[in-house]
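During the no-cost extension, the postdoctoral fellow (Dr. R.K.) reprocessed legacy sequence entries with the updated structure-token encoder. One reprocessed record is reproduced below for audit purposes.
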Amino acid sequence: MSVLENWDQWKDFLGDRLHHAQSEGLDQNTISQLAFEIGDYLAQEVEAKNPQEKVLADLWRVASEQEQHAIANMMVKLVQNEGTL
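Re-encoded structure tokens follow.
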């Protein structure tokens, strides 16, 4: 099963990646920009595997770039306490 197929596993995976980026010294602005770029890629190139991802992809498609940055920042906040680190 892919981490994309289960919302809780996806959040845990993102939390692990966030903790790793922070431990490597990436600042919040860099993390936010990476989250935006990843969100844009996922919305355009990856088929949603669960209902939550479908909602995020739909919101991403109708959002302005400023709103997309806000969505990316909210995802970062959502997973800050997720992960195994």
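The longest helix spans residues 28-45. The domain at 3-79 is CATH 1.10.760.20 (Cytochrome Bc1 Complex; Chain D, domain 2). The remaining legacy entries will be reprocessed before the final report is submitted.
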